[in-house]
UniProtKB/TrEMBL annotation:
UniProt function note: Catalyzes the condensation of carbamoyl phosphate and aspartate to form carbamoyl aspartate and inorganic phosphate, the committed step in the de novo pyrimidine nucleotide biosynthesis pathway.
Subunit comment: Homotrimer.
Lineage: Eukaryota, Viridiplantae, Streptophyta, Embryophyta, Tracheophyta
Gene3D superfamilies on file: Aspartate/ornithine carbamoyltransferase
Protein name: aspartate carbamoyltransferase
UniProt similarity note: Belongs to the aspartate/ornithine carbamoyltransferase superfamily. ATCase family.
UniProt keyword Transferase, yes or no: yes
Length: 354
């Protein structure tokens, strides 16, 4: 089915139906390297999911409301399958390995009655191996599908794809750049677990230089009030200055620390990440210097407030010990399940609206 370009509806306004549109909304012409401006982020929010900072609080509230509805849809789908996206086809193009993101997108589409075209390890097994450009691949795939979910090894690839395509594009992670749907499910998880988003103290731990999940989460949590972020990482993978400058510009207090136990005692959320060996290239010495320095274990649980939670985008290696899993504050597998609901909500909003 060839669908015209749908829009993510502005809260409180009726969503236009793609069935009534005569042609796709004209594409934006955006330089791939350009820094996002307020006007750009506003237009991006209407058609693609490219970066975390494109969403305002109203949009986040709407997405989270629909995600709650999707929890009920998913529970009910065991009896009779939803037909909300029946006739729609989603293409997943993954140039990097993925388990949770790819499978949750595919499960989300199928739970809503849609169908999936998928390629895993597209870097090796698609025409990219023959030298085809990303733009040519996107132009081809959009002819087969109604929405494209892209994971790529290059930062900025999702923006290039969105500029090229006449159907919605969702960024499922672009190199060390961003992972906006992960940030959405992370913030949704914090809301569900803690009960609020304003006033949160958040500890980001691990590979902060290369971690697209922590970058996206920092952008998104900055939409809320009275936030404080603690950065805890080895020196070789400290959070980059662009995120720090953005947080400062948004009035978000942040602090760097080398003491995980002290930070854990103050936080509502500890967000642990793995040290990403694949981002170090040939500098294995830097990887070895970074791994294993900050581990969430029973000692961390001992100082963590009773109401707090531990999160992780997964996969984990040894940065959270397995004996933490049985503690009710270990929220990372609940967090992963929330990814299904957020992605169901996004697919519904982008393709058919409320």
């Amino acid at each position: 089915m060839a669908a015209a370009r749908a829009t993510l509806p502005h809260p409180h306004l009726p969503a236009p139906s793609w069935r009534t549109q005569l042609k796709p909304v004209p594409r934006r012409v955006v330089a791939a390297s350009a820094a996002p401006s307020p006007a750009l982020t506003a237009s991006l929010r209407l058609g693609d999911v490219i970066e975390a900072q494109q969403f305002d609080r109203q949009a986040l509230n709407e997405i989270f409301e629909v995600a709650r509805e999707m929890e009920a849809v998913e529970r009910g789908s065991h009896g009779s399958r939803s037909r909300v996206l029946e006739g729609y086809l989603m293409a997943t193009l993954f140039y990097e390995p993925s388990t949770r993101t790819r499978l949750s997108f595919e499960a989300a589409m199928r739970r809503l009655g849609g169908e999936v075209l998928t390629t895993e390890n597209a870097r090796e097994f698609s025409s990219a191996a023959k030298g085809e450009t990303l733009e040519d691949t996107i132009r081809t795939v959009e002819g087969y599908s109604d929405i494209i979910v892209l994971r790529h090894f290059e930062s900025g690839a999702a923006r290039r794809a969105a500029v090229t395509a006449n159907i919605p594009v969702i960024n499922a992670g672009d190199g060390p750049g961003q992972h906006p749907t992960q940030a959405l499910l992370d913030v949704y998880t914090i809301k569900r677990e803690i009960g609020r988003l304003d006033g949160i103290k958040l500890g980001l731990v691990g590979d902060l230089a290369n971690g697209r999940t922590v970058r996206s989460l920092a952008y998104l949590i900055a939409k809320y009030q009275n936030i404080k972020i603690y950065f805890v990482s080895p020196d070789v993978v400290k959070m980059k200055d662009d995120i720090k400058e953005y947080l400062t510009s948004q009035g978000v207090e942040w602090e760097e620390s080398s003491d995980l136990l002290e930070v854990a005692s103050k936080c509502d959320v500890i967000y642990q990440t793995r040290i990403q060996k694949e981002r170090f290239g040939e500098r294995i010495d830097h990887y070895e210097a970074a791994r294993g320095k900050y581990i969430v274990d029973r000692k961390v649980l001992g100082v963590l407030p009773k109401h707090a939670v531990i999160m992780h985008p997964l996969p984990r290696l040894d940065e959270i010990t397995v004996d933490v899993d049985s503690d009710p504050r270990a929220a990372y597998f609940r967090q992963a399940k929330n990814g299904l609901y957020i992605r169901m909500a996004l697919l519904k909003l982008l393709l058919v609206g409320r």
